[in-house]
């Protein structure tokens, strides 16, 4: 089976859903994504920024929910999201030891945009999420700086690369090269079309477990790719966004279903792994400075949620596979080759 045969097989259209025009998270209107990649010798790391909506997100917040599938991680801001159900900053993805730097950079950015923070109103709740890229990246060099984060912000557009870029530069997935993956789906209710998009930072799994299109491709690749037996300590961050008018409880239910899309690719959610899902809606924005005592919102009927659940599983599964399909082979910090999916398949 060659790479082209694999692509042709995988890219067969899914008759249940239409993909968005870009098949990316940014098919949800208003979202942009930017990467900044840092490569210098054994340093292979970076930052990915998600601007979740147009306008000032601190003053016009987004309904949001998060779900920790397995909590081996160092993300920030989750406690307040769990309590209040809102997203009020862009989202930054990076490596584990750069979380503090990213947090500080987000704070500086939000302070500059909102002079009332910490004076006439409360503080701010930055959302930063991470995976450990120490297998490929010399993580102890602390090579992500505040300037790196600001460069990722400057690069935010509707079109963005996948694979070994930005925060995904040093990540491994199923013992292959992983990183950033994305996909989107569209659905129609009462004649109106809505979009759901997913973006993953994939850094988990063992080759022998990899399943694509219900095919145990990992077992086949084990015959030609040497992968050491190891304890599962990987992670995956999943960002799920939609313009569907969903409330916080419904978003949390979607976030839970991302685990099904991840496990369809073969994951068993290891003891030492960190699987975190974050879901938000760009509809029904929440004013920081409310002008009325009442907030009137339209919310999707509950009996339509099954369609949303199925769509969540589909879009997350493809995003994980997309992170593998777009990555390139590289060397880890010990000089060992970490194969891309395409190069691995070429060895069969």
Describe this structure in words.
With 348 residues, the chain is of the alpha+beta class. It has a single domain (18-287, 298-341), classed as L-amino peptidase D-ALA esterase/amidase (4-Layer Sandwich). It has eight helices and 15 strands. The chain has helices at residues 3-10, 78-84, 99-113, 146-154, 217-221, 248-263, 305-325, 341-346; strands at residues 32-40, 43-51, 60-71, 86-87, 91-95, 127-131, 172-173, 176-177, 179-189, 192-203, 235-242, 274-281, 286-287, 330-331, 337-338. The strands form four sheets. Strands 3, 4, 9, 10, 11, 12 and 13 form a seven-stranded mixed beta sheet that branches. Helix 6 links the parallel strand 11 (235-242) and strand 12 (274-281). Helix 3 (99-113) packs across helix 4 (146-154) and helix 6 (248-263) packs across helix 7 (305-325). The longest helix is centred in the C-terminal third of the chain and has 21 residues, at 305-325. It is globular, with a radius of gyration of 19 Å. The chain starts with a helix and ends with a helix. The mean pLDDT is 94. GO terms for molecular function: aminopeptidase activity. Belongs to the peptidase S58 family.
């Amino acid at each position: 089976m060659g790479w082209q045969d694999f692509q042709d097989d995988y890219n067969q259209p899914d008759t249940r859903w239409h993909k968005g025009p870009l098949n990316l998270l940014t098919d949800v209107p208003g979202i942009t994504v930017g990467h900044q990649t840092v490569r210098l010798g054994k340093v292979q790391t970076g930052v990915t920024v998600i601007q979740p909506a147009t306008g000032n997100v601190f003053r016009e917040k987004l309904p949001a929910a998060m779900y920790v599938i397995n909590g081996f991680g160092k993300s920030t801001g989750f406690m307040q999201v769990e309590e209040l159900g809102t997203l009020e900053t862009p989202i930054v993805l990076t490596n584990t030891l750069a979380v503090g730097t990213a947090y500080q950079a987000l704070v500086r950015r939000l302070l500059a945009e909102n002079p009332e923070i910490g004076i006439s109103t409360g503080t701010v709740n930055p959302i930063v999420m991470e995976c450990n890229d120490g297998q490929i990246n010399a993580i102890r060099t602390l090579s992500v700086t505040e300037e790196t984060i600001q460069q990722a912000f400057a690069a935010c557009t509707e079109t963005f690369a996948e694979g070994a870029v930005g925060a995904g530069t040093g990540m491994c997935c199923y013992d292959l090269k992983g990183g950033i993956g994305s996909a989107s789906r569209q659905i129609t209710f009462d004649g109106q079309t809505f979009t759901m998009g997913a973006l993953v930072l994939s850094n988990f799994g063992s080759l022998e477990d990899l399943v694509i299109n219900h095919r145990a491709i990992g077992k086949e690749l084990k015959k030609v790719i040497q992968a050491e037996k190891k304890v599962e300590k990987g992670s995956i961050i999943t960002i799920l966004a939609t313009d569907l008018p969903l409330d916080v409880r419904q978003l949390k239910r979607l976030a839970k279903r991302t685990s099904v899309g991840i496990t369809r690719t073969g994951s068993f959610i290891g003891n030492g792994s960190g699987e975190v899902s974050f879901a938000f809606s760009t509809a029904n924005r929440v004013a920081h400075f409310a002008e009325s005592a009442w907030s009137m919102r339209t919310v999707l009927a509950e009996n339509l949620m099954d369609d949303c659940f199925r769509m969540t599983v589909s879009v997350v599964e493809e995003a994980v596979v997309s992170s593998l399909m777009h990555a390139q082979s590289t060397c880890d910090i010990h000089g060992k080759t970490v194969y891309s999916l395409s190069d691995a398949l070429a060895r069969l």
